[in-house]
Every structure is written in C-alpha cells, then in structure tokens.
Task: structure prediction
Amino acid sequence: MSEPIIRCEGVSRKFGSRAALDDITLEVLPGRCFGFLGPNGAGKTTLIRCILGLARPTAGRITVRGHDISRDPAAALARVGAIVEEPRFYGYLSGRQNLELWAAYVGSEAPRRVETVLDRVHLMDRAGDKVSTYSLGMRQRLGVARALLCDPELLVLDEPTNGLDPDGVAEFRTLIRDLVETDGRAVFVSSHLLDEVQKVCDDLAIVDHGRLLMSGTLADLLDGGTSSLRIECDDPTRAQGVLAALPAVTAVAAEPSGILAVQLDPDQPTTRAAINRSLVEAGLGVSRLEPRSQSLEERYLELVHEEGRS
Ligand SMILES: Nc1ncnc2c1ncn2[C@@H]1O[C@H](COP(=O)(O)OP(=O)(O)O)[C@@H](O)[C@H]1O
Ligand SMILES: [Mg+2]
Result:
C-alpha cells in the first residue's frame, strides 16, 4: 500500500466555542480521486484551508506528501495545486498571459509548461482571448491550468463545479478523471452534491457538522448499507410468514404489487440460496429473488439521519 498523500489525524478547528471540524481522521492515496462530501456549512472549506496551510487546526496533525503542513509548509506544498473559491484572473489579459505571469512566479519548470496545461484543459483555441470574455466554466478550467503549472502530485479543488451549467459540470468531470487516470495525479475534491462525487471519485468521506460520518471507497459505502432483498413468489402472504421466521430476516413487507421487500440482519450470515431453499422447502414457487442495491443517496441520508439521532 502506498503512503498517503494527505493524512489528517484527529483534526479539529474551533471558532470560539463552535467546532467547524471535530476530530477528522482521513487518508488520501496517491493517484486517486477523493471526494469530500457534505452539506453547506459542514466544514469542507475549513478542512481544505487547513490542508493547504491557510488555516491552523486547533488540534490534530496534517501531513501532505509526508511533510507536516504546519512545520514544513514549503516541502508539503511543493507539488500541490489548488483552487479555493473562485479563481481570480486579470480580465484584460489573455488566458495565456495570465498563466505566463503565474508561471514566472512559480518558477522552476512552470514557464515551460504553459502550453501543455492550456492543452490539458482544452483552452488552446481561446488562449489568446481576454479572460473577461471567458465563461465561468472556462475560468474554472483556466484555474485548473494554473494549478497544474507546478506539475502537481495532488490537486485540491473546493467545490469546483459550483455555478457551472450541466455541460460545464460534465466537462469538468472528464477533466478530473483525465488528471487521475491519464496523468496519475491525486485529486481531493469537495462537493455538496452526491451525484457529483459518485460519478467522479474513487474514495470518499462524508462530513456533517464538522464530524466525519464515514470514509472509504465508494464500494465500502454501498456495502455498509442495510442489505435487503426483493422476492417475487406465488403466495406472498404465506411467504411473508416463512421469511419472518428466519433468524437472518429482520423485517418483511409486501409491496402493493405483491413483491416482498426483505430486510436482512447484517450480523447474521446467510445466503440468497439459503433463503430461496427455505421458501422452496415450504412449497412456495419463487420466480425472482434479487438483492436490492441501495443508492448512494439512500445510504447518505441514512448516515446523516443516524448522526442526527446520536
Ligand atoms: N472564519 C470563520 N469564523 C467563524 N466561523 C467560521 C469561519 N469559517 C467557517 N466558519 C464556520 O464553520 C463552519 C464550517 O464552514 P465551512 O468550512 O465553510 O463549510 P463548507 O465549506 O462545508 O460549506 C460553518 O458553521 C461556518 O459558519
Ligand atoms: Mg465551502
């Protein structure tokens, strides 16, 4: 397993007595897209500012590329590109001129990378036009180009698709996947939109009220959900009784169509074949028995709801 590119250990950040972040522990692996998902006010920007050394946690520790961000920010951020809030440019200069200015400031290889990064974000044909004539989506992509000048191992993007129209969002999603899959960069991206995170990220963490509700791969998140089955058979009423008597079944409900929705106890090992056998042995004809996969949205709402109760 490779060393994490970002490691947050017990990170808290208080504003007065209110905790914007409360004991956040997570790891972002190189070459993967990590989604940081949570509603507005959850603490996403606050954590991103801490990761980039723009704010200090009140407790805990953050390392980026193996370097402690508060002790050695220069080493930690040497190959990190970021967009926090809307990127600002000189409107009366062209996209290319804006990048040239920034590249001169970044130094090293950056001035030689201007054309490469313009091409990467598909702005070549408009690179000579004034930024004041760019759409919001183009400005966001120019922001990514600027963040790419340092040839980053890690890109940190705070809600980059906010305000973009559906085409802009789709373009941005393709761009992020290219940065991950083709270039091998890690991307840490925050969002309040489930759908966005589900479509672009390999791993994710869910945050609400400054607390981490879960962190893992997309697959983990879905696996952690309540397992349930949908069963269609010739005598739903009798099947309901048979199923309810099984130790692994916690609830059975008949839908108006006669299809049975069966909740399974995640701590009781069973198989679909075993459940099917119980029904068949009771003399029932089973025409369909399938796992009901939970959408990320259902799982997300379940997690946020659980947290609200605790
Ligand atoms: N500088 C600040 N002073 C006081 N409270 C702040 C400050 N910055 C953020 N907060 C509070 O911290 C919480 C998290 O904010 P933020 O990180 O911006 O959330 P998100 O980016 O997820 O919408 C919010 O309740 C916000 O009001
Ligand atoms: Mg924010």
Remarks:
- The CA atoms of residues 95 and 127 lie 5 Å apart.
- The longest strand covers residues 18-28.
- The domain at 6-223 is CATH 3.40.50.300 (Rossmann fold).
- The radius of gyration is 24 Å.
